[in-house]
Write a structure and sequence with these properties.
The chain has 288 residues and is mostly helical. The protein is built from 17 helices and no strands. The longest helix has 26 residues. The model has no long low-confidence stretch (mean pLDDT 97).
């Protein structure tokens, strides 16, 4: 019998694996590879690479599964992007970008190290227990083949675990009655979410949309006059994370406490190297 999983152990593991997955979104390698297949707009590139596993879907599907983007921004690029490059072409370009990004950030020696292979094995084992039901982004990526190279297999597994948790998280946001902008605003107010300037620059919302969401959250007693979370707001956000943990517990329980601890340890070392190599621009997260 495996030992009980410590509280929030799965979340801690996710919080390390998710940035490793996300490095390519901020990488010049992604822009270069997508431009090579004709997709030069950054928003179009993001929508295409994250949605491509679902096939050439329309704007409605992307808005629904991504949740916090303004539909008009999505519709500006989807489904038109599929006329520029097929979903299969986009997936191949994404894989090249991820490979280049990880090799650049981690270094060739680290990519080839046995620790990466071990982390990939552990992450893939955890992903065995992910469920497809009501998790469209996870399910689409789960239908893709596992790459042969260990660093790519690790990234693939991190993607599965990220999208599995994310799909469940959206259900929790709906239950909490937070619309897309309110979800962004309240997460930013925790100090751990995307900074307003980044959210407004990438999600398609205007400052008026943001301010209106702030007003609605104040009306619910979740934000105070200074835009900080009230006690009720803090409780709501903590409850959202706890319920997301509950819906996401299966893969980490399947891996077991020792496996989760080891995967977190290995991934922490890799992420530290990536961060030191400048994986993310300054100011992406925070309240300002």
């Amino acid at each position: 019998m495996t030992s009980p999983l410590p509280e929030r152990a799965g979340r801690r593991c996710h919080n390390i694996l998710n940035p490793l997955h996300s490095t390519h979104y901020f990488s010049p390698d992604l822009g270069r590879e997508l431009a090579s297949v004709g997709i030069e707009d950054r928003s179009a590139a993001y929508f295409a690479v994250r949605a491509a596993a679902m096939g050439p879907v329309g704007a409605g599907v992307v808005t629904a599964t991504f949740y916090n983007f303004r539909h008009e921004l999505v519709a500006r690029h989807v489904p038109a992007v599929w006329a520029t490059a097929s979903a299969e072409t986009v997936l191949a370009a994404r894989a090249r970008a991820v490979d280049a990004t990880l090799r650049r950030l981690l270094g060739e020696d680290a990519v080839a190290a046995k620790e990466v292979a071990e982390a990939a094995e552990l992450a893939l084992r955890a992903a065995e227990a992910c469920g497809r039901a009501a998790r469209p982004l996870y399910a689409a990526h789960a239908d893709l083949p596992v790459p042969d190279a260990p660093h790519m297999a690790l990234w693939h597994a991190a993607t599965l675990l990220r999208e599995h948790r994310g799909d469940g998280h959206l259900a929790v946001l709906l239950e909490a009655e937070l619309d897309p902008v309110e979800a962004l605003v309240s997460h930013t107010a925790t100090g751990k979410g995307m900074a307003p300037k980044w959210a407004l620059a990438t999600r398609g919302w205007s400052r008026a949309d943001w301010d209106a969401a702030v007003g609605r959250l104040r009306g619910r007693g979740l934000l105070d006059a200074a835009g900080e979370l009230t006690q009720a707001g803090i409780a709501l956000r903590k409850g959202i994370e706890a319920e997301t943990d509950r819906l996401d517990r299966a893969p980490y329980e399947h891996l077991g406490a020792a496996g989760v601890e080891r995967l977190t340890e290995l991934a922490t070392g890799l992420l530290s190297t990536a961060l030191a190599a400048g994986a993310f621009p300054e100011g992406v997260t925070g309240k300002a």
